[in-house]
Amino acid sequence: MIDVSGHGVGPGLLSGMFKASFRSFYKKETSLNSIVNNLNRVLLGQRKKGMFITFGGLRFYEKNRIEFITAGHPPIIRINRHGHLEELKITQLPLLTLLHNEFKSDLINVESGELFIIYSDGIIETTNKKGSVVNHYTQKIRLKRLVVGRLTSVVTNVNYVFLYALLHSGQLCHRYL
Fold this sequence. Notes:
Layout (H helix, E strand, L loop, with lengths): L1 E3 L4 H20 L3 H12 L9 E9 L3 E7 L4 E4 L5 E4 L17 E4 L5 E3 L3 H4 L1 E2 L5 E2 L1 H11 L5 H16 L10
Antiparallel strand pairs: 1-2, 2-3, 3-6, 4-5, 4-7, 8-9
Helix pairs in contact: 1-2, 4-5
C-alpha cells in the first residue's frame, strides 16, 4: 500500500507511475527491498520537490515465509490465529526523500491462519465528530477487542473498524471509496 503526499493530478500521476514500475520490478526482482530501492531510484526524478511516497508491503514466499517492508508507513498489523496482535515495522524514510537511501526489509515465519492488515495514515489521523483523534493506538485497541475466536469473523470486524473511523470522522471522501 502506498500513500503519496499531496492531492491532485501530480500525486495521482506519481501513484500511477509507482504502480506500473512496481509491477515491472516485481517480475524481475527477488526481494521487496530490491524493488523499493529500484523504485526510489527511478521515480525520484519524476516528482515535484517535496513529494514523497510512504509504502507498506508484504511478499509471500513458500515454506511459510513472508517478507515485509515499511518505508515511512504505519506499521503492518499481524494477527495470529489466537488473536495476538503484533506490529511489523522497519523505521526508515519514505521513498523519494533521498537518492542514495538503502531500504531494508525483513523476513518472518508465519503460521496458517494469520491475518495481516496494511492501512494508510488516513485511518490513524482521522478525528471523530467531537474532534478527538481516532489514532493508531485507539484502532489497535478496537482490533484487539474484536479479535475473539476464529479469524473468519475478523475480516468483517476489520471492515467495521475501518468504516467506523471513516464514518465517525466526518472525513469520508473519494480516496476511501
